[in-house]
Amino acid sequence: MPTIVIIGAQWGDEGKGKIVDYLTEKCDYVVRFQGGCNAGHTVVVDNEKYVLHLIPSGILHKDKKCIIGNGVVLDPLGLLKEIEILQNKGIEINDNLFIAKNCHIIMPYHIAIEEQSEKRKKIGTTKKGIGPCYTDKIARNGVRAVDLLYPETLRYKIKANLEILNFLLKNLYNAEELNEEKIFNDYIFYAEKMRKYIVDADILINKAIDDQRNVLFEGAQGTLLDIDHGTYPYVTSSNTIAGGACTGIGVSPKKIDKIIGIVKAYTTRVGEGPFPTEINDSLGEEIRKKGGEYGATTGRPRRCGWLDIVGLRHAVRINGFTGIAITKIDVLDGMDKLKVCIGYKYGSEILEDFPKEIEILQNCVPIYEELPGWKESTVGIKDYEKLPKNAKRYLQFIEDTLKVKIQIISTGQKRNEIIIKETPF
Length: 425
Ligand code: IMP
Prior knowledge:
Layout: E1 3-8, H1 16-24, E2 29-32, E3 41-45, E4 48-52, E5 65-68, E6 73-74, H2 76-88, E7 97-100, E8 104-105, H3 108-121, H4 130-138, H5 151-172, H6 180-194, E9 198-199, H7 201-210, E10 215-218, H8 243-247, E11 258-264, E12 267-269, H9 282-291, E13 303-305, E14 307-308, H10 309-319, E15 323-327, E16 337-346, E17 349-351, H11 358-363, E18 365-372, H12 389-402, E19 406-410, E20 418-420
Parallel strand pairs: 1-10, 1-11, 2-5, 2-10, 5-7, 6-8, 7-9, 11-15, 14-16, 15-19
Antiparallel strand pairs: 3-4, 12-13, 16-17, 16-18, 19-20
Helix pairs in contact: 3-4, 3-5, 5-6
The protein binds inosinic acid.
Inosinic acid (IMP) binds near residues 39, 40, 130, 225 and 237.
């Protein structure tokens, strides 16, 4: 019985939600292991659109257990709102949702500090308090889910953190201070609603794996946004790569069977930071419109560009993908030709490996290989052989250059618009 990790291979928004949703059919447990409500996974079921930020999309299936692991930073208000929206749509949330006791909690001061620091740093964050919450975690000042169950600890931590952060808000940022009593009361209220979900998630998941259950680890964001291996500092604050699945819930690397990379047929990025294959003309706009490339969390237009094999090779290396899922191939329908970046030119140098230097990434010139496009529609195709000849050629090119098998191809938004070339199970 496999354990499968799903990882975004680019800068997030690769369409992971749909692939996770599809694979969940065969899984018993779905685990989120990093990030928070900066993520937005869009899933369309029976023409109903669901956007999930924190809860694993497995929640949309009956009898699946969904776990929010310790690697996640959880905003209680966001979670409770998400639960309410899902319940209003008839989705049952009861004994199918679990929150790790050691998962860190986003506090109002995280959001307030980020609001201010973004004015100076300009990373283009989602302003959900993600970075400051991880900062507190690493600095050992964080509030964890388990602390919500112990009012005295909660109060002490809020007080200690506010002493410092209110000083910063007032004296450095000239912003309004936050009220300790209000935060405490609000969080005690959230705690009562969340209490039933808070568990020893590491024990739960290890037992499930030992009992031969199928487990899916649902990554958020993407490899190039990884805090260590992404385009630092234009990254998110967590380990978005496959290794994060182990630390973000507490399972041994020995227990991971498969790692599937999700690759969008072109590239997008939200927020600031280098993007060598970005298309800055009307074609970029056309792809954005056709692909619905607007942030699921912030509504911001996504920057669009050609497929970048250099970045993908890095993702293959860091994650060790055992297979790939290609999404949104249908967005490329109707194009005369397609460009794929196979290297970067920087001065007189040709680079085949993704550089660590932000300066190089910002100034390199992509080297493109041109492939013929296709005029036919690929929307809803379920059989690989029915794809247009040039679409197959495009896919084959990706497979050959990355040397990883393409197992799944998504051909539309709906659940059943998918080609399973090779089952990942
Ligand atoms: P943060 O995660 O809010 O700290 O934002 C840091 C960077 O990651 C910004 O460039 C965001 O736009 C980007 N980011 C965060 N979450 C997502 C996501 O789910 N998809 C795409 N980009 C994201």
